[in-house]
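To illustrate the input format used throughout this study, we show a single complete record. The first block contains the structure-token representation of the backbone; no residue identities are included at this stage. The design step must infer an amino acid for every position from geometry alone.
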């Protein structure tokens, strides 16, 4: 056992030297970019944002319409509540309650559908960007590409890595 440990200790410098030699022969290359800058420069991004805005406007218009409808019925209820017989008063109160509950449910469903649509729409754009980043990384032989957005990478030495923002923008054209 002692001889085995001694043999390993004697071989350790050679192993380290061999690893250092292989690292110096194949330096690790990396790139970095601003993901958001490239994403926002894509024509698909602008199209996706327009599509999302159009859908949001349609939902907002419908929410406004049902709110106006509710407000009109509520005003009519307030104007006539003193003259309504008890059964009509109760019926109108129930109608208003049902309308309000449906409106609340619709608003929740609309928010969820907008979120789902945005995730789906932007997911396709992000996937295209991710594929372009991967393609540039493979073509240029990078070990990895860092995203410098949001302070995730506070320092990158430009002498040791390459800014690929413009290269990826070109790959997307």
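Output of the design step:
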């Amino acid at each position: 056992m002692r001889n085995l440990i001694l043999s390993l200790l004697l071989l350790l410098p050679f192993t380290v030297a061999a690893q250092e030699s292989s690292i110096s022969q194949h330096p690790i290359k990396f790139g970095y970019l601003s993901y958001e800058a490239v994403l926002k420069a894509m024509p698909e991004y602008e199209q996706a944002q327009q599509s999302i805005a159009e859908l949001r406007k349609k939902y907002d218009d419908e929410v406004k319409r049902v709110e106006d409808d509710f407000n009109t019925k509520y005003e009519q209820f307030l104007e006539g509540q003193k003259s309504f017989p008890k059964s009509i008063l109760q019926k109108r109160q129930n109608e208003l309650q049902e309308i309000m509950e449906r409106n609340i449910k619709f608003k929740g469903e609309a928010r969820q559908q907008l979120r789902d649509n945005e995730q789906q729409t932007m997911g396709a754009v992000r996937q295209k960007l991710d594929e372009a980043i991967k393609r540039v990384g493979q073509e240029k032989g990078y070990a990895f590409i860092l995203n410098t957005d949001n302070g995730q990478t506070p320092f990158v030495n430009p002498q040791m890595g390459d800014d690929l923002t413009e290269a990826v923008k070109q790959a997307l054209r």
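Structural context for interpreting the output: Residues 24-172 form one domain. The chain has one domain: 24-172.
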